[in-house]
Amino acid sequence: MNLKEVLRGLGHDRLALFGLTIVVILLVTGIFAPLIAPYGYKDQNLDAAEQPVSREHLLGTDQLGRDIFSRIVWGARTASFVVVVSLALGTPVGIFLGAITGYFGGIVDTIVMRIADILFAFPGMLLIFFLASTLGPRIDQISRSIAALDPLVKGGYIDYIVVVVTLSLIGWAGGARLVRGQFLSIKERDYIDAARCLGASNWRLIFRHILPNAASPIIVSLSMGAGGIILSEAFLSFLGIGIRPPNPSWGAMIFTNYAFWRTRPMLVWIPGLVIGVIILAFNFLGDGLNRALNPFSKRR
Amino acid sequence: MYGYLVKRVLWIPVLLAVITFLVFVLGVYGPGDPVQLMLGQHANPETVVRLRHELGLDRPLMVQYTGYISKFLQGDLGTSLKYRGQPVSRLIGRCLGVSAPLNAVALGWSIPLGVLLGILAAYKENTPIDRIIVLTVVVGISMPVFAIAPILLYFLAVKVHVLPPGGWDGIFSTKVILPAIVLGIGPLAVMVRQTRAAVLTTISEMYVTTARAKGLLEGRIMFSHILPNALIPVMTIVGLMLGSLVGGAFVTELLFGIPGCGQLALQVFTARDYPMIMAFTILGALAFIVSNLLVDFLYFAIDPRIRRPQ
User: The whole model's pTM is what?
Assistant: First the structure.
C-alpha cells in the first residue's frame, strides 16, 4: 500500500475529502490566525458592543465589543495547538508501549496493561475533569517555578499546559491497547519468522517489519482521536476547568455567551457548530482513511 | 470461560484499591497543600496547624487512606467543604434523585428507537434510507450537547412556545422533554450504528441461509433468527454508554438549569471541594466497573456459545 493509492482512494471519497478540507482549514487558520483575524482575541471595544453582522464585524461582536469572527479564528489556534501537542505527546508513548508489550509480553506487558485498565475503569469525561481539576493548580505551581517556562506563564498559557498534560496522560492508553493487539497478531505471521531466520534483531523486527504493517489502524485512530481531543478541550473549557478567558476557546465562548441564548442565539450557535463540524470532519476523515487503507476488508 | 469471569471478579477489588488510593492521593494532595489552599497564602501558622489536625491531615498518608476507606465502606463519605457541614452522601443521594430518572428517560426513548432504526438501516442496506440513517448517525455522534441544545432550545422554547426552556419538576412534567431529547441523541446514534453492524454480520450466517431455504417469512427470520443473536453484542455497548453519559449530563444539566449530579459535580470540581470530588470520582468509577461486569455476566448467561469451553 503506497501513498499514491491511499490518496487516490481518498480522492474518490466525497465525505473523506470534505473531512480533509475542514481539517486543513482548521490547521491553516490555527497557524495563520494573527494574519486572518481582523482583531486580536482580547481587543475590547465597548463602543462597538453587541453589534450585529456587518462589514467591520463579519459575525458581529459580543457584550464586551470583541469581534466574534476573530475569536473563532483565534479559537482555531487554541484547538489545533491542543490537538497537535496532545497527540504528539501521547501517541509515541502509546505506540512504543503497545509495541514492546505486544512483542515481548511478560511482566512489562502485565504492568502496562493493568495501568491502562485503571484508566479505562473511569467514565472518560469524569477522569478528564478529575485530573484537570486536581492537577491544574499543581501544574500551575510547577510551571511558575521553572524558569524556562517563564514566557508561557507571563503570556497566560498555563491553562494550555494543564489541558495538554491531562489529555496526553489519558491519551496514550488507547493507542497502546490498539498497537499491542496489532503486534500480537502480526508477530505470528510467516514473514516475521522468515525475517527472524535471516537474523533480524528484535528491534529491527519491531520497527522495520511489524510497525509499518500496523500503521493503518494507528492512522485511522489518530484521526478519530483528534476529534475526541477537540471535544474534550471544549468540554473542559465550557466547564471552566480548561482554557479560561480571556484566552480564546470555543467551549468557553459557548459558556460566556450562553447568558444571551434567547436574545442573540448566534453567539452560542456559531462556536457550537464549529466544534461539531470539526469533530464530524475528523470522523469522516477517519472513516475515509479506513476505507482507503483497507480496500479489501468488508467494512460495515 | 468460567476462568475468565473468575479472573474478572477477583481483579475488581485490586482495581478498586488502586483506584481509590490514586483518587485519594490526587484528590487531597494533587492540587497542593489542601490546608494552604483553604486558608490562602497568608494564613496564621497556628490556624494552619489546628485545621490540619482537625482534618486529620497531620497523620501518615496510609493511616489517612485506610481511615477514609473504612469510613467509605460504612457509607460515610465525609463532609463537603463548599456546602459546609453537609454530609457528602446526602448531597450525592439528593442529586442522584434528579439525574437517575432524567438519564433513565433519555435512555428509555433512545435505546429502543436506536435498535429499530439500526434494524431498518441493515434491512435496507445500501438504499437511500440506509445512507440517510447512517449519515444522520455520524452527525449525531459528532455534534456535542452544547451545539445541539441551544439550537433546539431556541426553536422549541422561544420561536414556538411548545416546550418550557428549563428547570426540573420530576419526570412527569413537560420540562423533562428537551433535556431528555438532548441527552438521548448520543446514545441513539451509538445504538443505531452498533445494531446495524451486528444485524449485517448475522445476516450472512449459515443458519439464516438455512431459515431462508426452509421458506420462512422475512419478518420471522429477522425477529426470531437474526435479532436474538445480533442484539447480544449490542448489549455490551449499553454498559460502556453509561460512561459517556457522564460528560453529556454535566453540560445538559448546566444548560437546562437542572439541579442534578452534573451541576453539583461542576460546582465542587471548580471549588476544589476535595471530599466531594473524591466521592464523585470513586462512585463514578465504581458504577462504571460494576455495570460493565454485569453486562459480562448477562452476556455469559444469555449466549451459550460463550459458556462452552473453546
Answer: 0.88
